[in-house]
């Protein structure tokens, strides 16, 4: 029989040797995998350069020109999502490849800077798209021209000042440009129409209580009210105001307002020449909220 102590030592030595061999093999395998990742990063440079150029072209295609100011007409959320996904898929950082920063190819750092620029441009396009959709919800029909302001919009019946204010706040986070001026122009159209509606309601409340005229109901105030109602573009609001104005008219002994479809249409809309002149003037300078409200009686909101 052999010495038990010697056998124990021999078994332990074999075990330690096996562990050492496994450790060395594991470390060599990790080193090999790491070198493969470094090699992959080096070969990915050309692919990423091509992808950056492709995404840059795709972002430019979202706009009407290479200056990237106005979004082209008819772009969809799917286009934005697809372009954004391509951009997100471009690996440029050491973490993306699972390697150390020092082992990242030099050209990859240049690509990373280009991707950063494209990320900002992509975010800008997405923000503009979202805000334009928000502005469309203010009106009965979507804005017809997102390159040049056209004052042919009609606010929704239940539109509130806060709806416009929320969008104006979002626009304030976008760098000032011809696009932000355009958005503010459309918001000023909504503001002016809302102001007209508010003033008509105030006038009606002062002249009519419980369907009976008050001592504030005069011929002059009635004429001013009728003139203002004739310029309301929203059909539902105009009908509501006209019905109340008729009650005032009848009790003043004047009969009804006698609006007809043609008169309503003519009073609520611009002639083509007037619209074009207004658009050109409005687009040159940003109308303030006060100016938009004060001038509504002249522009026919």
From TrEMBL:
Arranged from A to Z, the UniProt key words for this protein are: Membrane, Transmembrane, Transmembrane helix
Indicate, by first and last residue, each region the UniProt record lists as having compositional bias (Polar residues): 257-287
- Which ranges does the record mark as transmembrane? 6-26
User: Which region ranges are annotated with the description Disordered?
Assistant: 253-301
Q: What is this protein called?
A: MapZ extracellular domain-containing protein
Q: Which lineage is the organism of this entry classified under, starting from the top rank? A: Bacteria, Bacillati, Bacillota, Bacilli, Lactobacillales
